[in-house]
Specification:
By secondary structure, the chain is an alpha+beta fold. The protein contains eight helices and ten strands. The strands form two sheets. A five-stranded mixed β-sheet has the order 3-4-2-1-5. A five-stranded antiparallel β-sheet has the order 6-7-8-9-10, sandwiched between helices. The radius of gyration is 27 Å and the shape is elongated. 34% of the residues are buried.
Amino acid sequence: MAEAQIILSHSRESGIVAIASGEQYPWARSALAESGFRRDNEGAYHLPVDGNGTTVVDLVRCAKRHRTTVHMSSRRFIGDAARDLARQLPGQWITSVETYSHPAWQEDLVPWIWDSGELGRALQSERIPYAATLTDTVQGTMLLLVERPGSQLDYLVGAFGPEGLAEGYGDPHAPRSIVLPPFPGLAARAVADQYLPSYEQAVHARRTAAIAAALGGIRSEHNSWRAMIASGRSSDATPQNAAALGAATEEFLDHSWRRFLTVVDHAPTLIARCRPASSPWPDDAATLTRLTDVLSDAETLLDEVVHGNSVPSQERNARAWPAIQTWLTDGETFLRQARVSAPHRRPSLPLSTPVHPLTAVPPAHRSH
């Protein structure tokens, strides 16, 4: 790829859109500014509405003086593609355009993209100078839409990691990105019928695994603490006096509280999905109710710690321990219910006539 490049595409709302790209992208920006283009808040460049008579030929000449090449994309502007897709998805979605003018900028995405498929690999090995995000304003799901490298038509869509589960590419629970066709109706159907259900199932599995790991960590440390208290010695057999044992107990309770926050964060959503009556263990209902009650107590305590008056650590630990102990005792009951209550696939979207192909480019601009 050239050291500095201007990528042109067409938007039905704002006409020609330009993206500056390359390791020397400031050269491209200079050429765009000199040609009368104005940069928007998302990093794309547009000609003013009233225009200044600049043509693509003029821009090419100016770019040459700035050692910048100009390329006309065969696709519609990525922002239009994202908006067309978002309008046909279930729920309420907002879109924005991301520009990664310097090649290194896209590397910042890698830790945040929650993907085990082609999108994650592309971000690490292919040049992607721009993308679009689609955010579900109710559920909080954030998708990333990119033009599929090596294809003149297709797109890739994947997701950022869900809040509170900061896992990126390579997480074994991550969903696989999918290829989208260049038509909004078909693309929306693929996202709604294939990708979002697999994403929701992956989030459910990841939350369940996170809770299992948190409880496992607390249980392991609890066993070590009990052994130490019973023997009066530390793990290296050093005798412990009363003060040391008390300090070790507070340290254990501090660690347990921090680990238990994972349960507080993610268990409410999973419990809400559990249906013991329709599971192989209908008698689990009473246990889930008990777990929900102590979880509510822990949520109240957390709210006081974060937003209320300062809660001394010893008081916090004393109030939190009953909830933690209940979850240590009955956590396996919750986990088996959570594992059989993964979300199901959504009903298929009605197939609508595409508004425009995502790749459509007005004939007037194809000659440039």
